[in-house]
Amino acid sequence: MAEWSIATVLKTVKAKRLRGFESLPLRQAELNVVNDFINFGLWVLAVGGIFAFMWHKGYWMQLSNYVGETKEELKKCTWPTLEELKGSTVAVIITTILIGFFTVGVDFVIVKLVRFIT
Predict the structure, then answer these.
(1) Model-level pTM?
(2) Cα–chain-centroid distance for residue 18?
(3) For burial by CB atoms within 10 Å, which of 49, 53, 54, 57 has the most?
(4) Taking the domains of the chain in order of start, what are their residue ranges?
(5) Cα separation, 19 vs 15, whole angstroms
(6) 61-79, pLDDT tens digit by residue?
(7) In the chain, what percentage of residues exceed pLDDT 70?
(8) HSE-up of 77 (CA within 13 Å, CB side)?
(9) Separation of CA 55 from chain center
(10) What b/e string do you get for 17-52 counting C-beta neighbours within 10 Å, with b at 16 or more?
């Protein structure tokens, strides 16, 4: 019950601060639509401006050339077979585990050495 009365008071206070027809929900909805349309128009203008700038400077052509050259280079690549991929993955995992054990071992030795000295 208290929540309902607080909400009613807040709505009344808010409505008294507004003048004229702004307090009507329909008027507020119309303002929101207009604001949304203006915001959308500004975004379209900004993106269009960036596109025009990039077109004028030739950046789109450079990007197009880069993508085309990348596709050509990827056609020349030889991809590993499934067996080669599995072997490489196992080698990486084993190497990572060994480096981890080495790091833990060196850390253990250094900690023992420091404790012995101090």
Answers:
(1) 0.40
(2) 39
(3) 54
(4) 1-77, 80-118
(5) 8
(6) 888 899 999 999 999 998 8
(7) 74
(8) 9
(9) 26
(10) eeeeeeeeeeeeeeeeeeeeeeeeeeeeeeeeeeee
